[in-house]
Specification:
By secondary structure, the chain is an alpha/beta fold. It has one domain (about 1-195): Class I glutamine amidotransferase (GATase) domain (Rossmann fold). Helix content is about 30%, strand content about 30%. It contains 6 helices and 12 strands. The longest helix is centred in the C-terminal third of the chain and has 18 residues, at about 180-195. It is globular and about 40 Å long. The relative contact order is 0.18. Glutamine (GLN) binds near residues 45, 48, 79, 107 and 137. Glutamine binds near residues 79, 82, 107, 108 and 136.
């Protein structure tokens, strides 16, 4: 499986390292020809409006949107979660997302209380070990559609959600050296989704 990490802005290298630890091929992608060749995509944290604007500048916005709509497995962390959301609250005027996940997110939701924090959270991956989650001006999920499963919450706000082909977390698992979220994406989301279309 070849997984691309969208390399327009944000913590690309850390995601590549986490993916390599999950025994898949992981490459930075920013050109259409590269994005056409990947089986799955990771949208890193960073700044969601900047990433969406750069995607338009690089001429890959519509391609990414179409591939996600076509069922390419995708994982978005933090800004990446915002980029997957069908609806964004507290968005910048004209802010675009790729869509693909039937969720409404609020940008910088925790930011009004505290900019950044870490917390041990329960993640429904079948293990009982809590995950250390790093939140940096993070969004939370305010509304989910019927097709969405909530995998983790903080103060009853969902911070990890999935559909059949997409995973999103408000936090940054690539910063902790714990690769369980990436492994979950590869083994529980991407692999079954890719098997299905074979
Ligand atoms: N607040 C950022 C945004 O709106 C996301 C922050 C992050 O990815 N760490 O895009």
């Amino acid at each position: 499986m070849k997984v691309g990490v969208l390399a327009l802005q944000g913590d690309v290298r850390e995601h590549i390292a986490s993916l390599l630890a999950c025994d898949v091929e992981a490459v930075a992608v920013r050109r259409a020809i590269e994005i056409e060749k990947i089986d799955a995509l990771v949208l890193p944290g960073g700044e969601s409006t900047t990433i969406a604007q750069l995607a338009e500048v690089f001429g890959i916005y519509q391609l990414i949107k179409d591939r996600i709509a076509g069922g390419m497995p995708v994982y978005g962390s933090c800004a990446g979660m915002i980029l997957l959301a069908q609806e964004i609250l507290d968005a910048k005027v004209g802010q675009k997302s790729f869509g693909g996940l039937d969720i409404t997110v609020r940008r910088n939701a925790f930011g009004r209380q505290v900019d950044s924090f870490e917390s041990d959270i329960d993640f429904s991956d079948g293990s009982n070990d809590p995950i250390r989650a790093v939140f940096i001006r993070a969004p939370w999920v305010e509304k989910v559609g019927d097709s969405i499963k909530i995998l983790a919450s903080v103060n009853s706000h969902p911070v990890a959600v999935r559909s059949e082909t997409a995973l999103a977390t408000s936090f940054h698992p690539e910063l902790t050296g714990d690769n369980r979220i990436h492994r979950y994406f590869i083994e529980q989301v991407a692999r079954p989704a890719l098997e299905k279309v074979k």
